[in-house]
Design goal:
Arylsulfatase, C-terminal domain, alpha/beta, 526 residues
Length: 526
């Protein structure tokens, strides 16, 4: 009897202690370190330990290695798109670019039909709405719209629109100092200050969105010299002897230093244990010494365009682990919602699902999504327009003009070298239908409409140029020399547009090339 009552008292006490600790447990903090254009193989961390031969040592990222020891690598992590803006919108609002209606940078149809941020729930909104006094900050690159519209409390809106220019200019007319390439260090300082200001006082979410390692390649000269010397040791013809590879390696090291400082700041503030630290990239890479591991590059829908490095450390995430279950950045919004036990309902038309059980159990976990497959839609009017669907181990890619379809088993064939479309026609038909159904359901734009919008946009630009110069010529009176100069300038601008139309969005050229724009110049606008 006595033993029984002792046990009962002990259980009551224990449950009171548990309740108390649950009541006093601080809500978790979140830090996303979001890199621009960092490829799957652009770090010294092997994202998939099942392929040990892929390990390379040219890039040196000791702080990312440290983060990998603290948490979980996601070997099948996908960016929502293979270029910046659609990915950056998608990560914030938990929906695919096809559903959002923004599928590639500068798509005139997307811009015309642009939806307002005010109508969408963002990562910051979810945390703010949880009623736990979150403070949220976004520093660095945003999308092609003012970052103030994303719902963050603190932003560093230096450019109105924090696009790629922020990597070169602090603000108009003030170039970034040589010792702060791509603002990599000043963005880090802002982030460290934010952590110092709020850690332990309020739960926080920091999105450190770096301009690095997007082109143009920038680094401090000291770090570049290190890789110049390192590269010189390789035999002629090795990619590591190329200047651009050495510049990229230097940029990557400076990005890694930034991560180290953020980790130090969290540690010093005593919040590491209660902070989810997510490291990833907005799309695939474009320069890598190890590109052959994954096919393609930024801008297309082969794996090196879409598959990105990703590591997550935080509460209940086992150390030094790897999860192979495919995830997409559009999963973050429902994940945050789940991790803070938010009570507000989520938007019903999300593509993502909570990753909580993967964070805690790795490969034994499960993600519940309304949409089981990942659909990528890129009806690009300046290079081969493509869509893709990843479901289970398979990925189907379709060229939207020619209708050609490729099928790969990514578990067996990571490098997408063996097209199985002819061998598995039933699977092709199933995935193809699922792709069509999804695009139809979300009202994704049709490739022909995108082309027409692009042609119309060019025609409108031409009319605007004609009108502008007609007025200027009219105002020039009898000044023949001035009129001749103006006419020349007008003709030059019209010719540029004509060439752009013929060379960049010529359907016959687009039809012939599945791999991507051989000139590679599409990158400059990304
Ligand atoms: Ca990018």
């Amino acid at each position: 009897m006595r033993t029984k009552s002792f046990v009962a008292v002990a259980i009551t006490l224990l449950s009171l202690i548990c309740q108390q600790s649950m009541l006093t447990a601080a809500p978790p903090n979140f830090v996303i370190i979001y890199i621009d254009d960092l490829g799957w193989t652009n770090t010294s961390v092997l994202m998939d330990s099942r392929y040990p031969n892929n390990k390379q040592s040219f890039y040196e990222t000791p702080n990312i290695e440290e983060l990998a020891k603290m948490g979980m690598r996601f070997s099948n992590a996908y960016a929502p798109a293979s270029v910046c803006t659609p990915s950056r919108k998608s990560i914030q609002i938990g929906k695919s670019p096809a559903r959002i209606g923004y599928t590639y940078n500068g798509n005139p149809l997307n811009i015309k039909n642009r939806k307002s941020w005010a109508d969408e729930t963002t990562l910051a909104d979810v945390l703010k709405a949880s009623g736990q006094n979150y403070i949220t900050a976004l520093f660095g690159k945003g999308v092609h719209e003012p970052v103030a519209g994303f719902g963050y409390d603190v932003v560093d809106d230096q450019h109105g629109v924090n696009g790629n220019g922020g990597g070169e200019w602090y603000r108009k007319g003030v170039p970034v100092a040589p010792d702060d390439p791509k603002q990599v260090y000043s963005l880090t300082e802002k982030s460290v200050k934010f952590i110092r200001d709020y850690a332990g006082k309020r739960p926080f979410f920091l999105m450190l969105s770096h301009y690095t390692v997007h082109s143009p390649l920038r680094s401090t000269s000291a770090v570049f010299k290190k890789y110049e010397a390192k590269g010189a040791a390789f035999p002629k013809g090795d990619p590591r002897t190329e200047k651009k590879q050495q510049q990229m390696a230097a940029m990557i090291e400076e990005m890694d230093r930034s991560i180290g400082r953020v980790l130090d700041a969290l540690e010093k503030a005593g919040v590491t244990e209660n902070t989810y630290i997510i490291f990833t990239s907005d799309n695939g890479g474009y320069i890598s010494v190890a590109h052959d591991q994954l096919r393609g590059k930024k801008g297309n829908l082969f794996e090196d365009g879409l598959r990105v490095p990703m590591i997550v450390a935080g509460p209940n995430i086992p150390e030094s682990t790897q999860c192979n279950i495919p995830i997409n950045h559009w999963d973050f919004l429902p994940t945050f919602h789940d991790l803070v036990d938010a009570k507000d309902p989520l938007p019903e038309d999300l593509d993502g699902g909570s990753l909580r059980s993967l964070f805690e159990q790795g490969n034994a976990g499960q993600v519940e999504r309304t949409e089981e497959a990942f659909v990528f839609h890129m009806p690009y009017a300046r290079m081969p327009p493509v869509s893709a669907i990843r479901k289970g181990d398979y990925k189907l890619i379709r060229q939207l003009i020619t209708g050609e379809e490729l099928l790969y088993n990514l578990e067996d064939d990571l490098s997408e070298k063996r097209n199985l479309a002819a061998q598995l026609p039933e699977l092709v038909a199933t995935l193809s239908k699922e792709l069509d159904d999804y695009l139809k359901k979300v009202g994704a734009e049709d490739v022909q409409d995108v082309f027409e919008a692009q042609y119309q946009h060019i025609a409108e630009q031409m009319v605007a140029i004609e009108m502008k110069y007609a007025e200027l010529i009219e105002a020039s009176g009898d000044d023949l020399e001035k009129i001749a100069k103006l006419s020349l300038a007008r003709d030059k601008q019209l010719e540029t547009l004509r060439k752009f139309k013929e060379e960049k969005i010529d359907p016959s050229r687009i039809c012939t090339n599945f791999e991507g724009n051989p000139r590679g110049d599409f990158r400059e606008s990304n």
